Amino acid sequence: MSMAAIAPRLVFGFRGDVGDNVAYSDDGSVVYPAGHNVVLYSADTKTQRIIPGTLESEGITAICVSSNKKLLAVAERAEKAMITVYDLQTLKRRKVLIAADAGSKEYVSMCFSSDGKMLLAQGGGPEYNLVLWVWEKSKVAAVAKTTNQQGSPIYTCAFSPGDGTMVSIIGQGIFKMFKLVDGSLKLLNIALGKRDPASVVSQYWVPSDPSENKERLLLGTIDGEIIMMEGTDARSVFNTDNGLAAASIVCYSKGFVVGQDNGVVTIFEKDEKEFYRKARSFTIENNPSRVRYLAVSPNEEHLICSLENNQMYSLLLSNSEIMKADEMNFDVLGTNNHQGPITGMDICIRKPLIATVSTDKSVRLWNYVDRTCELTKFFADEIYSVAIHPNGLQILVGFADKLRLMTVLMEELKSIKELGIKGCRECCFSTGGEYFAAVNGTTISIYNTYTCENVGNLRGHNGKVRSLFWSPDDSRIISAGMDGAVYEWRLKDFKREKENVLKGCNYSSVLATPDCKTLYAAGSDKKIKEFEEAPGAGTQITKEIDAGTNLTQVGLMPNAKVMFAATESGALRTYKFPLTGEFQEIKSHHSSITRLRMTWDEQLLVTASDDGCIFVYDVKDKDAKAAARRDQERMDWAVEVLVTRSELDEKKSRMSELEQQVAELTMQTEYQLRLKDLHLQERVKELTDKFTAELEADRQKFELLLQEKNEQEMEYEEKLKLAEERSQVQLSTLDTQYQAKIMAEVERFQQLTQEKELLNERWDEQNSLLVESHERVIAELTEDYEAKLAEESLKIEQLQQEKAELEREFEEIKRQLEEDADREIEELKEKYESKLATERESSLRLKGENGIMRKKFNALQKDIEAQKEEIKNLFEQKRELYATIASLEKDIASLKREIRERDETIGDKERRIYDLKKKNQELEKFKFVLDYKIKELKKQIEPREQEISDMKEQIKEMDGELERYHKTNSGLDLLISNLKLKQEGLQQEVMTQRTGKSDAEQLLKRMQHDLQAIIPYFQEPKDLKEQVKALYHKYCGNQPLRTEEDADLEREAARQREYLEKTVDTLKRKLAKDSELHRTDNLRIMQENTALIKEINELRREIRTLKSRVAGINGAVNLSVTGRRPGSPGDSLMLSEGLKRELEMQRDLITRLREETAAKEARIRQLESMIAPRPTSRERLPPMEGFPGSMPPERISSSLLMKGESRPPSAAIDLPPGIMEQEAVA
């Protein structure tokens, strides 16, 4: 059987994520991407020409149109990034460019050179290479890496239109310029002044002017500034005054246009003083999105704006001067597209309408005959599904909270019924429109369309239902779900007629043949399954076709000749039917196809996708006779629309008011016309009389003037005769005079000729004499120079050290003298030759003065033009110099300002240093005071011993209280566990009660169903009796349910549950209160321990001070004892009685200090043993400052020996170990 062919007919949609996604062709068509295609849209005829993408690629990433509007380059993502070049006139493919130099799977931006022979392409991640193609030869001319060390992404690239060797790129925090030199791209140094290159977000090269040899580049920044660069230097800056990012720029003959955030478009026009000035701004109302790309038509009448939310708008650029900024001046180009993935779609039978819903929370109705979007309405809730009635007057929409049935009015959707189905993702009307089905999780609900009555529910799926299909006669409905089940339901009794369950397979779409004998389903196992009823075995899978990819939707032509299948990659397949596995594939969408529908006349196929695009295909049946028969049998489309009575009454009242106004205006106009006619008649009469009188007066005046004219003619004829006679006499006289003058001039010319010959002879003689004198002078000079040369050579031989320098001087003098001599000769020669030429010119001037003057005039004209051109160039240079001076002055001012700011900063730093020095001095004084206070406080340690003992008692009491709290907590934990066990028991009992209730309800439903089955036997008593007996034995064989006891048990269980819940709440509150008290006590204990440790620290410091004092006293004693020299006379007499007493006092003092030290050390050890340990649940405090812990005696002795300290043996023995340890650490 022949397979039908499909071809794209039209597309509703636009991809805003493609680079440079809007442009114009040479015939005025707009070029933009949609799905996996490039569309050429004519705004005048609303027709589309579609260029399909490559089937093997993953999607279009960027497009580019050449400057002559004849070539189109399309970049596509693939295993190796590829670029396809098309001819826009024939839409034929010219070249396919594939190279590994891109270092990526895609190109993010492209640009043709001005002559269209080279193509610049910016590769994507991870390498971000810039590739320059000679595309006609499929040759890579140069490659450069454009990203930074961090691998920041690059967004756009651009070619200079004038100099075909300069390119620029922009990325995330990156702006670079390159120049093509010797087959490689060389990075240029850019001077942006104080502006950060990271702020640049857009660029556009200004078309070069033949009169100006300057390359200008416009850069848009994130702050709304436009930087104009000449070459690599910033020349000027323009501001949009709104602070919005300049996301896109495009130039035209009068200036340039900037696209910004929030849908703002700003127009700049050329200015003689400041290059450009801001002219006006316009805003796209109700669409605050970023304007990503701009395009100007070839005749510069229209401006196209592409937004990042998949919308395109058109602005009449030629009338922008008269537009008001506060009005909506933009028109939607084509249709208003979806801004997100399409989640639901349906097609109408009686009207050419397609209904779609999307994640942008909108419902849209598309007319595929008029190629328009007839209705758009946004809602506040998310929308998941949609279905349209066959007559096109009602629509079913599944929202997140409800399912709404709406009426399609002329310009509005009016909700007429809301059903409590949340998150309905599948709904559809029956073939005749009498019923509609809606999915509620795992249940399918069937409703009457006209009464919205729930006529039945289909239960049986264990997973979510993903697809529904009505039979042509509306007697059956087929469903498939994520549980791997395919069911065919009989709507007569809402029972399953066919079923097949394949666990592990999530079905996404299901359908049936027109006779419903064969079912087809596609799921997650990448196969198309065919189900048929097998006798005795139920519904079985009779055939499986491996698709190789996940299929999201399947569709079957009503005449069962071909099957369509949609894939998750956006491709559409046409399978030969009956299924053999043979198929044809085209790729129109960029993302997964979510919906697939076919018109009732089998001529159109419609698909919707996650990329927000809707494609309409022509289904071309190879059976021409069948197609012609369908065309003849097809009915005309319905043109009826619904209007509410209130709207109709409002329009009628409005029409009557307008008719009344028209009648009043007609009467007023007729009355004013009659008045004007009367006034004009009187005016015409007055003017007629006036002009008649003026005409009579003019006639008389004309006759008088005519008579005067005749008289003057006769008078002037006589005067003319007299003048002619006088002129003849004067002419003869002048002729005689000029003949005499000519003879005199001839004689004078002959005399001058003779004088010229004499002068020539005399000049020849003088020239010969000059030549002889010149030769003689040359000879004399030569002899002089030879003599000087000989002298110089002798001097050089005598003075070898000055040889080189004298030679250079000699050569220089010789050269200068020769030049002077030659210059003098040339000057004399030129002087005499000029005199000779002057004489010759004078003779020639006498022969033809007129011709010479003409030559001089021409020469002067040329000189004047040359001078004008030179003056113009000088003015241009002057203006450039002034601009350079101004920019340099700005830089100087900024540098001065920066220097001034740095001087102020240095001054602040110096003042800060001075203040810190003063503060340091004050702190030194404060330190001295604190040292004195510390000494005083050390004397007050003894009174605190009593406080420490009191604290010790308090800590013991707290330890006992803490143990009591632990016991209480353990008891509460045991009580909570018991309550949890009781709660679990109650929950199990509740579940048992619920199970019994559900069983009773099922039993009651079965009994009701069986009673309905007895109804046909009412006319047959015997059969009725048998059926009733069977029912009695079936349902009354067991004992009846004891509903009263069950009710008492439920009340008792509820009472006990309430009591237990209250008990648990009371225990929770008590536990929280005890925990808070416990935490407070622990915190208080911690604070007291910290205070005790600080006090111990202070005691240790005091001991260290006492130890140092003891060491000093011991040293003084030893020095006084050992200070005398041995063997000196009178050793026994040197010690006086006073010195002995002083030594005794010192020894007593040392003994007392040692005893005090030992007592305090013992007290410290006692206090350390009294301190209660901190709770283990807390973190350990860090070691106290100056007390890192115990140190072995070996380390103490070694440290003392390393320091070179020595002390008396008695001191080393008597001092406690703790004091020695602290000394070693210090």
UniProtKB/TrEMBL annotation:
WD repeats lie at residues 335-367, 458-499, 586-627. Keywords: Coiled coil, WD repeat. It comes from the Eukaryota. InterPro entries: CFA-57, WD40/YVTN_repeat-like_dom_sf, WD40_repeat_dom_sf, WD40_rpt. Residues 1175-1226 are annotated as: Disordered. Residues 641-668, 692-968, 1050-1170 form a coiled coil. It holds the Pfam family WD40. The keyword Coiled coil applies. PROSITE patterns: WD_REPEATS_2, WD_REPEATS_REGION. PANTHER family: CILIA- AND FLAGELLA-ASSOCIATED PROTEIN 57. This is Cilia- and flagella-associated protein 57.
